[in-house]
Design goal:
The chain is mainly beta.
Amino acid sequence: MAPKYKILVIIIAVLFLAANLFGTNYFVRTGGNDGNDGLSPSTAWKTVTKAAQYALSPGDTVFIGAGDYWEQMKVASSGSAGSPIVFYGDKTGEYTGDAGDINVGDGNKNNIFHIENKSCIVGQGIVFRYGRYSGVYIKNSANIVLKNCEMYWNTKYGIYCKQSQGELTINSNIVKGGSVAGIGVYESYDDMNIVLKNSTISDASTGVYVYKTEIDSIWNNDIKGNNNLGIYLHTVDRCDIIAHNRVHENWNKANIYLYKSSCGNISYNTVFKTNYYGIYVYGSTASYSLGAVEYNEVYEIWGKYGIFIKYINTDKISNNLVYNFAEKGIYFSGSSQYTVNHIDNNTVHDGWQDGIYILNCSGMESITGNIVYNTDIGINWNASQYNTIADFSANILHRNITGGIKINKMKNSTIRNNLIYGNQYYWSSWGVYINDNGGNALNVINNTFYNTGNYGIYGKNIAGVWKNNIVMGNINGIYGDGNFYVVSSYNCVYGNTNNWYGAASQGIGSFSEDPLFVDPAGVD
């Protein structure tokens, strides 16, 4: 073969490869003509219907100029991995010469941007309006990206996806309206993975509704003003993370609601203003699990609980700020099958019922470092059988109405290094109240109880060691009731109407002298 001919063959091959690698650019403008070739702004097509129905190839891009396109985009071709077909709304006019919004809609069509049995499609910078069913409809498709799009007042869904594969990426979109959901993703199981980020979803029945589909992340979204639920996961086997979202003013059920779903992390969300629950998680079987609920700010929960978790094994509820709630701040309900390992370092205040309430938990590793004030009971452990907490320490509970810590059925545990003071109903409140403990051992060591009310420490039918506590300024300092087998020693019990009462006795090394607390405002 002659050298020149070889060079020509190579050039043709390179050009062919480049054409397939980079694709072809097509153009749509309101002043165009569907009889044109669509290959330049001056020979642009007129309708997005023409562009969507054209035999596009992987890597092709359709640039759509500003204007109103009252029609449907039903995609006829697929892209490929690394070479998607892109429908690009040219808001700046950089490519088409027409700057402004790109509005696509048709009130006579069920779906405006219709993707079915297709793969590797990108929609970017387009406004989809007035679909009788949805703004964007995705079914039996794979690897779809929606970026910088807007979906307004589509009847049932802004974005609807069902039985699809690969990855669905929804990034930096605005979704408003939807009688079922702003975004609804259904029955894709582990075949598809959702990434939802940087988007605003509002004014729908439910903001985000995911059913039987796996989730990579719901990240940095503003989900607000929906009638029922903000984020709703139903039978989701895997959700890696829900984080950095603002979820608020979703009125009638909950801002974040997980039902029979597993989630690795719910963190750094700001959750506020709802008539029912801030964060609600219900598992029902041991097949579901919850990793961490942490660093969330939850407030103005006017109907129910700030954080509600029931029948799901949970690693930790930690470092949350929960305040201004109608009932309980943090609520965990388990049984012999379910537990939460850690409830640590939360700040909970200003609620009508208990700050932290733990019902029928099968045992815990720690309740430590929590600050609870202006609630009914600071920490309420209410179990149906006797279980153990490995570390119950360093909590600060003050200005609560009924009491600091209430225990119903706990064994072989130690309440240690807690500070409880200044309860509001002095004549009937208490620091630690241990209900009938069935003769099981529960130690109370190195705590301070100051002005907690009727009792500093109350225990009934209990054994254990109570020592090195400071109990001051109560009606009854240490009160023993029933079969009281506590070994009491080295406690400072001072300035109570009755320092020791009932079956309680002073024991070895205890004394009744002023502990001489340091006054931080003074010179001592």
